[in-house]
Design goal:
This protein has 92 residues and is of the alpha+beta class. It has one domain. It has two helices and four strands, in the order H-H-E-E-E-E. It has a four-stranded antiparallel sheet with strand order 1-2-3-4, with helices on one face. A hairpin with a 5-residue loop joins strand 2 and strand 3. The N and C termini lie far apart (46 Å).
């Protein structure tokens, strides 16, 4: 019985963690209705020469997958209120 309970708890933790951020960046961004639109971020990045592949929300931040102006693959995070870059815990 103890094994079943431990296994159930472990599975529950794994399932719950899938709905959370990756842990690379976290933004204290408040309610989404106050966020700047993703289209504004995309336009700013395109002006810099980036080719945007995808923008999604992760950890309360905008997570961007793109090719930068040098043609390098980039995964970058931006604060949704200011659109400022957010440092990540992963070394690049």
């Amino acid at each position: 019985m103890i094994r079943i309970t431990a296994a159930t708890a472990a599975v529950a933790c794994l399932l719950a963690s899938g709905a959370h951020a990756t842990g690379l960046a976290t933004c204290d961004s408040g309610p989404q209705e106050k966020w700047q639109p993703q289209a504004r971020l995309e336009a700013q990045l395109k002006e810099r020469g980036w080719q945007i592949r995808r923008i999604k929300i992760d950890g309360g931040c905008y997570e961007v997958y793109a090719l930068n102006e040098k043609g390098e693959r980039v995964e970058a995070y931006f604060h949704p209120l200011t659109l400022a870059p957010v440092p990540t815990s992963r070394s690049r």
